[in-house]
Amino acid sequence: MEIQERVKSYEEAMLNDLATLVSYNSVQGEPQPDAPFGEVPAACLDKALEIAEGYGFTVKNVDHYAGYAEIGEGEQVIGVLAHLDVVPAGEGWKTDPFTLTRDGDRVYGRGTSDDKGAVVASMIAMKVLKDMNVPLTKRIRLILGTNEETGSKCLAHYVEKEGHIDMGFTPDGTFPGVHGEKGALGLNFESVRTQIKEIHGGVASNVVCNHCTMIVASEAVSEEALRLALEKHPVTFEIKPEQDDLIVDVYGTAAHASTPKLGVNAIGELMAALAEAGMQDDFVEFYNRRIGTSCDGAGCDCQVEDEYGPLTFSNGIIKMENGVIRGTIDIRFPVTMNSRQIASRIEAALAGETQGKITVRSRMEPLFFPIDSPLVSRLLQAYQEVTGDLESKPITMGGGTYAKGIHNCIAFGCEFMGEDCHIHDANEFVRIDCLLQQAEIYVHALMKLLEA
Questions:
Q1: What are the DSSP calls for 175-225, one per residue?
Q2: Fewer C-beta within 10 Å: the chain N or C terminus?
Q3: What is the CA radius of gyration of the chain?
């Protein structure tokens, strides 16, 4: 009860700190001197370190790639790895995404869950440990990155400069912990021939596209037939005739690329409707055959799964440049497989393909810890002590976190099982009671790791 009450006493401070951090539109920008991922992420890092220093922590800025706030002493380092960058706000917000807005027991804003809320919860957990005079025989280091959403180069730079941790967690997943993260393949696709004059959609490669705009000659597809086709799909749309063209806007539902079935991909639904409307086009045929709307990779012969879950397949971005349509595909593959196996299947499936191309852009191998491993079991105990939930078990997931880039780390929180905080979607939020409970769990978790 003492820990819970101490955390509760910081509620106003947590919300004030969160409002400050949410006010920074810390999407990756153009590199600048001393700001490798843009001026705003760098400024947000400076502010976060300033807040941490105000709590009495030792802070260090690691070349504006990352920074850390530290308490304790000793050779061993317990790491808590969170990030200050966010995905683009996108469309559909009911409030200003960069103004923390309270509505009942929720606060809304980009980053409230992913991952700025976790940053302030972790800071308060460390402050409570200081207040309680817990013997800090190891260093507890809150590591703050600025490029997690777009490649985690921030963490790679941190590890190069500061080294690995001895144990720790990243509050960027779900409770009661993530003992396995699927591997990831980033793919690029492009058209060979198309009648589409212009197309663009999507805000990030790891977000299901929720808005796609296309311009096509009215002679290529009937306006009436396209309307009838789109009406059968789970989207909203608008078609505007303009001279000899049709301007088509299709709206779906955003979701994280690791759970694409929770969203509705505006690009995929549009491509399917174009085919249903009778449009004869190489790219449309290629897209529907190889990418489609199924989210399972069947079109590229990579529809696979293991005991921990199936492969997922999501188109995030599409755009036209110099008459060529290009786009991104995000694959999360099972934890017991490797990227070579998946890439080989795709390469074999695409051999002889003449209507488009798909190439591998990036790859990351899976992460896996047994549930009974010391790190996972200690964090699970902390969660159980606070919540009383003895039924929920650590999971594997498709989302990739900092845990893949540093030793002896798993994702632990920040989202609770069964909670949908609209991460990577419009109207992202966190419940205030959940934010407080996160901090309480992290106090217990850090105490468990101090004892390890």
A1: TT-EEEE-EEEEEEEEESS--EEEEEE-S-TTB---EEEEEEETTTS-HHH
A2: N
A3: 23
| C-alpha to C-alpha distances, 220 to 154, 327, 410, nearest whole angstrom | 46, 22, 51
Cβ 250 vs Cβ 266: under 8 Å: yes
The DSSP symbol for 143 reads: E
- How far are the Cα atoms of 237, 246, 272, 285, 326 from residue 234, in angstroms, in the given order? 10, 21, 12, 21, 24
In whole angstroms, what separates CA 317 from the centre of its chain?
A: 15
Compute the half-sphere exposure of residue 298: CA atoms within 13 Å on the CB side of its CA.
7
**Which amino acid does the sequence have at 342?**
I
Band of residue 441 on the pLDDT scale cut at 50, 70, 90:
very high
Query: At residue 71, does pLDDT exceed 80?
Result: yes
Give me the chain's average pLDDT, please.
96
Find where tokens 């769990």 sit: 441
Helix axes 266-276, 223-230, angle to 10 degrees: 130
194 alpha-carbon distance from chain centroid: 32
- DSSP annotation of 253 reads B
Structure token pair of residue 119: 């940053």
**CB-CB neighbours of 196 under 10 Å:** 23
CB-based contact 341:301 (threshold 8 Å): no
Neighbours of 188 (CB within 10 A): 16
Instruction: Output the DSSP codes for 353-386.
Output: --SEEEEEEEEE--EE--TTSHHHHHHHHHHHHH
N-term to C-term CA, the chain:
23
Cα gap 115→386, rounded to integer Å: 21
**Cα–chain center distance at 398:** 10
pLDDT band at 290 (very low <50, low <70, confident <90, very high): very high
- The token duo for 90 is 């996108």
Looking at this protein, which amino acid is placed at residue 272?
A
Q: pLDDT digits over 7-48, tens only? A: 999 999 999 999 999 999 999 999 999 999 999 999 999 999
> Rounded distance, CA 219 to CA 118, Å?
52
Tell me what pLDDT residue 1 has: 66
Three-state DSSP class for 220? coil
Gap between the Cα atoms of 137 and 112, Å rounded: 32
Which neighbouring-strand residues pair with 237? 250
Q: pLDDT digits over 170-201, tens only? A: 999 999 999 999 999 999 999 989 999 999 99
Weakest mean pLDDT among 13-17, 106-110, 150-154? 150-154
- Side chain identity at residue 124, one-letter code: I
